[in-house]
Amino acid sequence: MDKRKIEENIFKGLMIFSTFIIFGSIVFILVTIFLKGFPALSFDMITKTPKGGYYLGKEGGILNAILGSIVLGLGATLFAFLISVPIVFYLNLYLKRKSKLAFFIRFSLDVLWGIPSIVYGAFGFVLMVFFGFGASLLAGIITVGFLIIPIMARSMDEVLKMIPQELKEASYALGATKLETAVKVIFKQAMPGILTAVLLGFGRAIGDAAAVLFTAGFTDYLPYSLFKPVATLPLAIFFQLGTPFPEVQERGYASALILTIIILFINISARMLAKKFNKNIVK
Amino acid sequence: MNTRKFKDAIAKKIMFSFCVFILSLAFLIGFILYQKAKPILGVQNLWQLLLSGKWHPTTGQFGMAGFILGTLWVTLIAVFIAVPVSILTSLYLSEYMPKRVKEFTKPVIDLLAGISPVIYGVWGVIAVVPFVRDYLMPFLSENLPFFPFVSDNYTGFCALSGGIVLAIMISPLMVSVMGEVLGAVSFEMRETSLALGATRWQTIKFVVLKKAWPGIIAAIILGISRAFGETIAVLMVAGCSIQEFPKSIFDTAYPLPALIANTYGEMMSIPLYDSSVLLAALILLVVTILFNIIGWGILFKSENE
After folding, report:
1. Which of A59, B70, B113, B295 is the most buried (most CB within 10 A)?
2. Considering CB atoms only, which of A86, A126, A200 is closest to B278?
3. Which CATH number applies to A45-278?
4. What percent of chain A has pLDDT over 70?
């Protein structure tokens, strides 16, 4: 075998090994979380709120954190959606493909996407103090909303870029304004992609801990007011793992399993929905 | 003007104002954090804060060098592991893997990117920390008793654990950006090389990588900036007690984001403490924005060519 072939095989082997590491790590993570979390999982965990001394090993569950995360995630997703949609429609309908402004908007979305969530958390914290309210559901929603705007807007933009120019022109030719085209034609056409983007944002909103640490606070109660602190699942996991009691840490693993299942569910349904709605698209 | 046209004009204005808002958001965040960091900058010199390792908030000493070095140390370890693995994986996906199998890999990479940082942290505590403590550390520090393997921290909560967890967290981003860069290299170029009798690896080495290397560098820069800002997962596994200077991959590390997260609750009680922590956030913001501008700048530029 000549030298070239040997080199080829060595590098091919290394590539297969690396690919195996990347794809193996996700299996490894999921299996570890499942094996550790499943034994500690109980019906109480998902149906009860923490009783006094929960973090010392007493009775209760983390329903407050599960519901809190879902409510906060929904709120943040709605907030980010309301800001992202006008931006991506403006980018794709009102601006020319090569326009400088469009370039700068896309560029700043990319840069915003790279800002760490702890910085959004600090920003939200300062805003919160400035406007004079404490850690609350609303502060958490706004902070996490800012965090997921770039994620949502970028993936919606990818979808809207794909929409054929002919479709827009057909709509304009019928006398529709750009706004009518956006609402009645483009929105329908891009529905599956927009839904996927929304679910991606929702998944990120539920999973993030650094941004809510300062802004959403933590509580043992179920979420009931926009102006009261709210518990979130990632922080519940973080706190449970931080205690020195093995039985509380076990519950932390179980909580991690719950969060993983929620995020897996969101990811998979994003793909399924995208497939389902794909049928309605005009090709 | 009729109502339909009027509505369109109004909508255009509103949409435009949202765009202006998003364009200015990064500046707004920077401005607000700067306002809050001002008190400490008024008392102490920025360079002094960055270069001093003395962090004693109660006596008014806010030197951040230990945290900055901690961030760099953990990031260096993560990059050292993640960069070769990501480059080789993205090459395998784009050059060798059949298209039908490739379709299936993207959702998996996306899922890896979508898993919550806390889950990575939990996994790190369950799997990585014991592995480092029971196998890697005894083995390496006995057989290679020199820098950077010597340490007296036997807990497993160390810079290396943080680096390993971070490496897996930043890989999906790097693999997907590199994948796009490699996908943009034209097939004609590869075919020309193969037709001249080059092996696949030679084609990769002399044609594909030659064309794609700016994009790959950009992907690495974006990965590094992601590693700088990662908070909760690193906080959970890196030990987080302050080091003056990183001496070993098995020593604890205390990165800047972890400092910000940890001071939650106590920072309002000591004068200038909150200001110095928000200065840390501002530093993080400026550095990640710079890295992202460079990274995305390279990508946009090579896309236009």
Report:
1. B70
2. A126
3. 1.10.3720.10
4. 97
